[in-house]
Amino acid sequence: MVEAVLLDLFDLPATLQNSIQGLLCNTLETIEKCSSMPAPFVYVMCCQRQGSERHGEQESLLPALSGFQSLKKRLEVVRALTTAAALYTIKQRLDEKDLSIIKVILPALRKDLMKVYINHLFTAVYQFEFEDLQVASDCENLQIAEPWSEGQTLPMQDVALIQSEIQMYLESLPSLKGELTILRSSLIPDDIFLHGFTTRTGGISYIPTLSSCNLFSSSKRRDPQVVVKENLRRLANVAGFNPETFHRVKIDHANAVCVMGKTEPDSYDGIVTNQKGVTVAAPGADCIPVLFADPVRKACGAAHSGWKGTLLGVSMATVNAMVSEYGCNVKDILVVLGPSVGPCCYKLPHESAKEFHKIDPKCVRIFDSASPYIDIRKATRILLESGGILPENIQDDSVTDHNQNITFCTACHPDKFYSHFRDGSNFGTQIGFISIKD
């Protein structure tokens, strides 16, 4: 069932300008007549002319709205200077109400254009139907809609202009939830490496569980890639790296490692490089973002270590890649464990907990329960030390510094970090990143 209707009046042809009111009233009458209760939310998207708000344009455009009783509190006119701004505002309204099934009624000549905007500003969470803007005489037009098929028919230069318009608009938005904050380790020498762990502040993501510096997009979440890209651009500006040479692991919750400059695996949870100016990163939203640095051979790496990856030894796999590819000595490699879910909060089913108990009984608390508490950081440290990493070369503040300089529990600090364990499926993601300075 359609949850919201978007009526696109942004750029009507000149031949229709004189009949906007008639088209609008006919369309709203059809929506009101054909919708089941409650009526869908309706958003009318219009171009904001310079100074038009001073001439009562909204009142003259929508003189009969008071007659649509079932829509009166569900109808909003959204004005903006660009389509990107108007559509992003409507997206915010949809997200506030958790709506995802949308009918778009628009002139036929705007359809291909609108599909490109939607493709960039929305994810697969949303379902769109399209209908030509016309005077409808019955309910049939409202219920039979063209499903949105993938594929763009616009010329590439038009698509590029839309992308540029979206980017410019997102860059103009204010940062949310405070300044962009980066946590840095004193273990990694800052004269050789640029590195850090992000927190959740200083980006533009507005959905509560994603707000505000979310750095991961997926088909299951409401943050589109363009928003994540803008958050990354802001991070890069503050941190001082080039977002065009930024590489993030492709999560598989396993132990494959990508060596920069070689053939990239389809998925991998570790990544290493000895190229200057190339930033490698690993996400985490309870899973551990682990950073690796060898100041002697000037090589670095990042790994995403969840409970599965920890058991499969992804951290030592990353160390071994640095040793084999760059001639690193394992005793020179520095390892920093970033913000991640702590043993205070993290539980696993008993069968999975057994595997951590085998590494060391101290990795599991209340072992006899159905869901014991697990310390994936301790397990990671034990496996790293078993592989030859010196204990003093591993930073885990949950052990060494109770002031929690870096290794906070993500689930315990909702003001600072995202947490899948705490926030559910529509969660945000922070990252750990590192590069060799030029």
TrEMBL record:
Pfam families: Cu-oxidase_4. Its main location: cytoplasm. One of its GO terms (cellular component) is nucleus. Interacts with FASN. Interacts with SDHA. Interacts with ATF6, EIF2AK3 and ERN1. Belongs to the purine nucleoside phosphorylase YfiH/LACC1 family. This is Purine nucleoside phosphorylase LACC1. The lineage of its organism: Eukaryota, Metazoa, Chordata, Craniata, Vertebrata. Keywords: Acetylation, Cytoplasm, Endoplasmic reticulum, Hydrolase, Immunity, Inflammatory response, Innate immunity, Metal-binding, Nucleus, Peroxisome, Phosphoprotein, Transferase, Zinc. GO terms for biological process: inflammatory response; innate immune response; regulation of defense response. It is found in: Cytoplasm; Endoplasmic reticulum; Nucleus; Peroxisome. GO terms for molecular function: copper ion binding; hydrolase activity; S-methyl-5-thioadenosine phosphorylase activity. The keyword Cell membrane does not apply. It catalyses: guanosine + phosphate = alpha-D-ribose 1-phosphate + guanine; adenosine + phosphate = alpha-D-ribose 1-phosphate + adenine; inosine + phosphate = alpha-D-ribose 1-phosphate + hypoxanthine; S-methyl-5'-thioadenosine + phosphate = 5-(methylsulfanyl)-alpha-D-ribose 1-phosphate + adenine. Its EC number is 2.4.2.1, 2.4.2.28, 3.5.4.4. The keyword Acetylation applies.
